[in-house]
From TrEMBL:
The lineage of its organism: Bacteria, Pseudomonadati, Campylobacterota, Epsilonproteobacteria, Campylobacterales. It comes from Sulfurovum zhangzhouensis. Belongs to the YkuD family. Residues 180-345 form the L,D-TPase catalytic domain. It holds the Pfam family YkuD. Pathway: Cell wall biogenesis; peptidoglycan biosynthesis. Gene3D superfamilies: L,D-transpeptidase catalytic domain-like. CDD domains: YkuD_like (cd16913). Keywords: Cell shape, Cell wall biogenesis/degradation, Peptidoglycan synthesis, Transferase. This is L,D-transpeptidase family protein. It comes from the Bacteria.
Length: 413
């Protein structure tokens, strides 16, 4: 009797249409409803160049078109709505103008087969899209701000485009953001030490000149160098150090510098009299000898370097030019990031990411000898270019386009 009753109830449920049966494309009605709601809100700011297809889907409800749109939407979310081909061409053209400009773009591979398999398995659209949603809290904050302002009186199209462009930039940031990370926002001239959505430390930075731009990229910090030597890059040696030395033979002694065959201070000394400096004045290419400024309280790098190895040879460091932090626009470096409060950062990172105590790290600092402190816990460093930024209180700030990326990056819609 009980079995007959259960069978009867099941038949009744089916007859009443309460079982959400997938159609031939694998779409359940609940999934269609959810996706159409996401599209109507453009919850992940990824309709972009697919507006025409969206209108067809909205009008017809065609499942094949809906599957096509889901894949397009996922790709726009994973890899942005910036015309990357055009941007790469613009970046290449800068080389002819002798502008050092590097913008690393981190693309995600969208496995179309997997997306459709997840759909047919009945997963929610939100869960299907989740792996491609940018980890930085700036994505959600900027999307919310954009949606709030787009119909607000007094907001200009240029302001809206800038906010939207920065939404897209969060999509091409390196996705393994990390629970703990340092975010250097170049147009803002600020660095933040973040723990999730919380900012534990924030202060000013100096970034690269307009023709020697601080590159946009991300790598994990691996170690700290206390009382560093400065190994002068060959480009600076050719265009700055050698011309000064040719004019002033006492330049090296006055600046606590020596010449070696490599960047090892312990290697054999090279005499100025044994090399033809004029052959390496100006131009490009490797210099077969190296200028090194020895560790001291007056070292151009200051007393601290934070190293996150990368192909750009860029790092964060202390500086002797403290007065430059009074300037509003701080584009003075050769590409590295100079820190307003390096000692505060040192103590914070030593305490939370190394096995050092405040006392032990300061003893090494005071010794004026070079020490390398390895990080024991992961701390990602992201140099970012966000000309729109929403703080923890929801306040939107906008910054000048110092390197011209707002101009050079075009939206594909």
């Amino acid at each position: 009797m009980k079995i007959r009753l259960l069978v009867g109830l099941l038949v009744a449920v089916i007859m009443n249409g309460c079982v959400d049966t997938p159609d031939e494309e694998g779409w359940k009605s609940a999934q269609k409803k959810e996706f159409l709601q996401i599209l109507e809100e453009d919850r992940y700011a990824s309709v972009c160049d697919q507006q025409a297809l969206y209108e067809k889907v909205k009008k017809t409800g065609n499942s094949k078109l809906m599957s096509k749109l889901l894949l397009k939407y996922t790709d726009n979310l994973a890899n942005s709505c910036i015309d990357l081909k055009n941007f790469n061409e613009v970046q290449e053209a800068k080389k002819e103008k002798k502008i050092e400009s590097h913008y690393d773009i981190y693309l995600q591979k969208v496995d179309k087969k997997q997306v459709l398999t997840q759909l047919k398995a009945g997963q929610s659209i939100k869960s299907i899209l989740k792996p491609y949603v940018p980890e930085t809290e700036q994505f959600a904050k900027l999307v919310k701000t954009y949606n709030t302002l787009k119909n607000k009186e007094g907001v200009t199209p240029k302001q809206l485009r800038t906010i939207r462009l920065n939404i897209e930039r969060t999509k091409i940031m390196r996705q393994d953001l990390g629970e703990d990370y340092a975010l250097v926002n170049i147009p803002e001239f600020k660095v933040r030490i973040k723990k999730g959505d919380q900012t534990t430390m924030k202060f000013g930075v100096i970034v690269g000149k307009k023709n020697l731009q601080t590159p946009i990229f991300a790598e994990p910090m691996q170690y700290i160098t206390l009382n560093p030597q400065w190994g002068v890059p060959d480009s600076i040696a050719r265009n700055e150090i050698i011309p000064k030395l040719l004019k002033d033979p006492a330049y090296l002694a006055r600046n606590n510098m020596v010449i070696r065959r490599d960047y090892n201070l312990e290697s054999k000394d090279v005499s100025v009299n044994d090399i033809d400096l004029t052959a390496y004045k100006g131009g490009k290419g490797e210099v077969p000898f190296k200028f090194i400024e020895k560790p001291s309280e007056r070292n151009v790098l200051g007393r601290i370097k934070f190293i996150f190895p990368n192909r750009h040879s860029v790092y964060m460091h202390d500086t002797q030019a403290k007065s430059l932090f009074k300037r509003q626009v701080r584009t003075f470096s050769h590409g590295c990031v100079r820190l307003e409060k390096p000692n505060d950062m040192l103590i914070h990172i030593a305490k939370n990411f190394t096995s050092e105590t405040k006392e032990s790290i300061m003893d090494k600092y005071s010794s004026l000898k070079t020490h390398h402190i390895v990080l024991k816990k992961k701390l990602m460093v992201h140099t970012a270019y966000l000309t729109s930024y929403v703080d923890t209180n929801g306040k939107l700030s906008m910054f000048n386009d110092i390197y011209g990326f707002d101009r050079d990056q075009k939206l594909n819609f």
